[in-house]
Amino acid sequence: MAFNPYQSDKFKAFIPSDQISEYQDYLTFQCNSYKATEQEVTETWRMRDRLKTVSVGLVVCLNIGVDPPDVIRPNPCATLECWVDTTGQAPGKALENIGKNLQQQYEFWQPRARYRTALDPTTDDVKKLCIGLRKSSKDERVLLHYNGHGVPRPTINGEIWVFNKEYTQYVPLSLYDLLSWVGSPSVFVFDCSCAGYLIQSYNKFEKHEQGMSAIFLAACSKNESLPMNPDLPADLFTSCLTTPIEISIRWFVLQRDLLWHVPMDVAVKIPGKLNDRKTPLGELNWIFTAITDTIAWSVFPRELFKKLFRQDLMVAGLFRNYLLAERIMKSYGCNVTSIPSLPPTSHHELWETWDLVLDMCLSQINDVLKEKKEYEFSSFFEDQLVCFEKWLDRGERRAPIQLPIVLQVLLSQQHRIRALRLIARFVDLGPWAVREALSVGIFPYTLKLLQSPAVELKEVLVYIWCKIICVDLSVQSDLLKDSAFMYFVNILKNVEEPLDRRKMCLLILTLFCKDHPAGQEAICGVEMELESDCLRQWQCVFKGILIKNNQLLKLEFLKDYEKMHLWISDRDANVRASVLFLLTCSLGGEEEVFLDYETKIALSLISLINDSSPIVRNELVIFYSHFIYLYFNKFILAAFDLIEKKGDKSRYSLMDLDKAGFSAFSPVWKAMLVLSVDSYPSVSTPAKHCVDQIHSQFIRKKNRFTSSQPELSSSSMFDSSRSFKTSNFSINPNNNNPIKLPLKSSFLEYSTEFFNKEKSLNLNKWKQQRNWKMKQEYLQSDLDLLKFDEFGVLTNDLDSNIDYCKFHTFDSHLISCSNSTLTIWDWKFGKKINEFKNHENKQCKISNICFLNEENDSMIACASNDGIVRIWKDYNHQFNESLVTSWRCLLDLMPMRNFPNVFVDFWQNCGTLVCAGDSKSIKLWDVEKQSCINDISTHCMVGATCLTTERVGCCLIVAGFVDGSLRFYDKRLKSSNCIVNTFHEHSTAVLNVKLQNQGFRDVISGSAEGDIRYWDVSSTASIKSLNLSRISSLDFHDAYPLIASSSENQDVKIFNSDGHILSNNKYHEGFLGHRISPVTSLSFHSLDTVLAVGSTDGDITIFKATKI
């Protein structure tokens, strides 16, 4: 039977289940740095200057039967004009039919336009037609089509030809006159030889004339003649522009020798209608639209694509067909030209797909027409959905070519759900993907689908809309039209809907109301009762947005705020912060009754200065900044009182301060002083600004009154009115970018950041594969006959001890700590990656570190001996490390040593940080919710010296103590009595303890006396012991039976579990190898047989195992 690594105890600690991976992603988001960022708003996808082609002029100059002097027609030659054979009927009748057909061909693309035809016209006829079209079109677009097959070619000067009244002469017509008659905006289609001269002339005019806005489509370049192949229509360019399916099939048959048996007119025999997608002909047109749209979107610049393919239905249709014209005309030596100039597309890969679609159609059409079989519809859209799905699985950060095709699939009832789910996966990649989807034109479809009652659409539509509104708030007005927002209201009100879906609906409605008075008014008219605890965060944010500028709603809320105020103690930090956001929005009422409510609330929030979440503390600073702004002068008095108490007896009288209501503001002022020295910069910085401003105003007023009226009391020095009467009051006026009071909260932007998070497509998959490979190598490794040799030395610039080292399990990163400095190394290459300060306080140093999210986007939890834990991300990016969060993990540190110990370990599976140290308790912190979830009594009067935890079940905690005791705790038991076992076999302090192999029972510990002991959780005594010489540093391997120790003799010894010495290192390698410096830190790699040795000279020596 083959060995299954999944059944191994070794592997249980590294189970990378999908559930865990998703949790890690969410945890990474929740621990994002809380920074004030403005939401990026982009409306580049929205067409603001949408136009319509409302008038079409068709100028046909054929003079059938008479060839122009500069044309020599071969025999046979092309005789079809607008699919009318000019030789099979009288010239006049043929010309009339050509005009009718041309109009019908254009009407398919714009049936509501006004059409006027000029057949073999004079100059006056053309002028009258053009002026009439512009007059009736006003500011809308006019299209002028010119067929010049029966007149001479355009001149170099940009003149086309028409006739005189007697048809005895060709009369030149200047392009400049034509432009002036038609006006702007306009579209010109020139189907004639040497049409490029007209493009050249227009470019000259445009340089001298301002305000010209014309689009030109020309059949060929200058000095090129139109093809006269008898198997093709004479107006090949016009056929491409107006009947693309018919000409595509004819051209395809001509290009394929194997299709000799297929008649040329097979296109007209294909059953169905062009505008009916459920018929063979309609399906071909649908596929053609999708392919040409995709070609243009993937090749053209976005602004150009938007202008040509999304501004005007007629222009969009013409340019889709123009891409076909470029391909077909090029095969006959003609290079179509246009204004604006377009990149070449004739060799785009999707044309081969179009050829395949035509081939599949023609291969069965004969049998279908003979009723031998049913028509088998194309699998084109299904195949493209598969391609899109594959791209989502393994693509790069570049929008997939299939995106416009998926948009077309939304038109199909059959594939709509699948297409929407794929689009939802795509927009989930980040804001860039949302913008790409919007630019391709997804928005009108998603807006229209809100009118659908289909239950199966709810989940995916809510998700897509959540992504869209997070990226662009301009969709607020679209949701207001026809009450489209009620789609989300109805889902939110339905308690049977999944909570996640209701939460996203609440987010959508919150953003719908943000800075949108009309939306707020519409929402206020809808009754909604939301009682779910899972919706607390967005309930508060939503209500805060609504009441912010509504005095009546503010008063109603304040009279009954106790209910939501209870949520301030919620375990989830986001809920606590959202309550503060709501309370901040409730401040600033105009009536005096607000004073009592506001002061009561402000006093009740003071305890939050010790909250574990910097998000909550930041929102507390925002709240107090608003409160200070409202009662600014009272806070100057509070600062005055505090300064006076610290100094000598002041000559200013404070006897009437209580009468001014001063007593309620002093505690808040003291809370702001505490917040101004917070460990998290995004909390301390704005708090400092508020404090500094109060102090500066106090000093300025004090100096003014001291010089003028020194005997005035403080109550007359400072006006006790409610607000500070300066609307543009700002902090630090000497700064070029002063921060204004009150401070602005970014909690809403922070809350929506999860939906805007950019996701990597391939990096995570690569990491998973790499991690899996490393785990397999670990499972298959053999420890027999190993010795440890020096692998390299990491030389540190810091002239201080290495206090602690830690290897990353999967990356080649080694973190070393020296006082307050973190240094990140690539130990395999011996290179320093980054170095930064964990904190600025020189009185404390780093005590312990651990990794979070090692499988994916790693972070470091760094504990200092003042009891504060700081979590860093991007630590391996030089100068770009980012502080995620910080809080005081242990509040009751015992002053037993100069530098108290604090130890941390992380349970990845449940997102819990375990903290112990010189404290009478072990605290368990939920990192995601940023709250303490358990407070375990150590039942010991001395502090902990080491800590280890069981990683799989997230239950067992083992701690060693100063008195040599070893204590086992189970978090599932009652917090006051979680201890399950205590051992007192060590006579001195426990240096280290480790749960080896991440098992449930194997524990190894060691003391300074060299007493190494093995334990079983269920035993009453150690099951094995080793006696080594006295040691100063000690570490055990997580997975292998390896022990590393160092002593005052400046040596590093590595033992196996039997006490056999595998390696004894006293000197560095080399001919002149010097003695190893006194060792201060030892650390094994979690998977590899590698040891890091930190010393007093600041260097780190790496030892790696090799086979003897």
UniProtKB/TrEMBL annotation:
UniProt cross-references to SMART domains, sorted A to Z: Raptor_N, WD40
UniProt KW Membrane keyword: no
Gene Ontology biological-process entries: cellular response to amino acid stimulus; cellular response to starvation; positive regulation of cell growth; positive regulation of conjugation with cellular fusion; regulation of autophagy; TOR signaling
One Gene Ontology MF term: ubiquitin binding
Annotated transmembrane regions: none
InterPro entries, per the entry: ARM-like, ARM-type_fold, Raptor, Raptor_N, WD40/YVTN_repeat-like_dom_sf, WD40_repeat_dom_sf, WD40_rpt
Domain Raptor N-terminal CASPase-like residues, every copy: 50-203
WD repeats: 983-1025
UniProt KW keywords: Repeat, WD repeat
GO annotations of cellular component type: fungal-type vacuole membrane; nucleolar chromatin; plasma membrane; TORC1 complex
Similarity section: Belongs to the WD repeat RAPTOR family.
Protein name: Regulatory associated protein of TOR domain-containing protein
Source species taxonomy: Eukaryota, Fungi, Fungi incertae sedis, Cryptomycota, Cryptomycota incertae sedis
